[in-house]
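Problem 12. The chain below contains 486 residues. Write out its predicted structure in token notation.
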Amino acid sequence: MRSLKPFIYFPTSLVLLNSIGNVFANPRPASLSPRDAFTTFSDNSINEGEAHGPLNVPSGSEIRNISIGDTGTTVPVYWSTSDGQDQATQAFIVIHGKLRDGDNYWSIMQGALQSAVSANYPGVDSKAIVVAPQFFSERFNSGQYSPTDLAFADVNAWQAGDIATHPASTKVSSIDAIDSLISILSTKSSFPSIKNITLVGHGGGGQLTARYAAVGIDGPEDIGLRYIVGDPSTNAYFTQHRPVETSENDFNNSCSFRNTWRYGFDNFTGTTQVPLKSPFEYFASYINRDIVFLIGNDDTSANGDQYCPALLQGGQARRDRSLAWWTYINTLARSSEPVQLFTSLVPEFAKNKNLPNWSNVTRNDSQSGGIRPKLIVVENAGHDPSQVLGSTEGRAALWNDMEDMPLGFRPDGWNETKADCSFCDGDTENRAGQVDLPRSSSGGSTGGGSGNSTGGNDSGALGLRASSGAGVIALTGMFLVVAGLL
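Solution.
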């Protein structure tokens, strides 16, 4: 059964230092506006076979309109009608895929839950709640949403956590909608037994989950958060560096947007609940969160996002881009993962050079290897959520402790090889700000040193704050978010 992990603690000095720098580097506009690069340079002609008839309500569910904070906006959600929700230790928020078929994803998750219950898989709760939000397209869902419901002019904008275009002049994004769902299901007066929150996405839903893992809210102190990211097309890079240099497929001069949000943090404006931070601060939170990357080893076709900014992230295949991302974040953290071995699979990764050393926000323990996220590569799985999430590795990602995750595929010699940053041209000392080392209640250090960086770092790591002062707390349940395919 999974255990509850403490949350990251950001010392005031770090926040102040990076906030000051961020004012000059990324001045915040007076109001939020659409920010996704893809919606800027694409022609928005995508019609991916959506079925746009009246909303169907699966047996065992109902549609509820959920308020998004105090913004006056709402998101419709398919919600379980099962009894005993005040006793549920798990809740599943199922985010639909590119077809925006929330009813189908509610049914998929309900079926997965029942299958796990029947199999007596450890930690599964038969009283679990299943909910599935519905993000509307202004183009294809006209007449189906209320005056307060979120809707998007571009059919892909919600996947990047972009700000909706309906209601008019709204400042609310799909990320804000997830924030509110987590907050509601974490409310003790309504759901007193929920103990763990996990967001899962694959493909298009994996894109939203990947970005949410970087910029979404923290959960309450007594609820753990996990993010499972399956085969996304792209990630939001924390720096200007990219593993591949190319001018191929530079449709509509798209490569000029290589570091604009969804691909990087340029033009990102924060969320309604989390004010804008620097990319370094987002990275510091990201690598200390329970993130599991579930990657199909056969997801190597040239499909999904093929614009130039996506190609820069590892070529045409989602698998290669995901392996490049894993190489990138471990190199920034100077972790103990021997990610240099991935360059034998995709030689272009060796071009990911001169990355700054941000190891002052990494963990220093034998189990994490320097960062908390895990990578599981599922053998014989393509771009198919049923193969990836339904695999033995997928079940482990959903229910196991972070310390009990299988690796899946790795290059030969992985377990016998040490991390080697020589391929990234040395260990630069740009740490983007020093961090005071917090102390535990007993006066001892709660964080590690500087990971595996050369030269050390006397400032230590960001401390990990236990909610009860007792470190790890036993867990009785899980709250899961599954997102869909692109």
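Discussion. The chain has one domain: 3-47+58-483. Students who got a different answer should revisit the alignment rule from Section 12.3.
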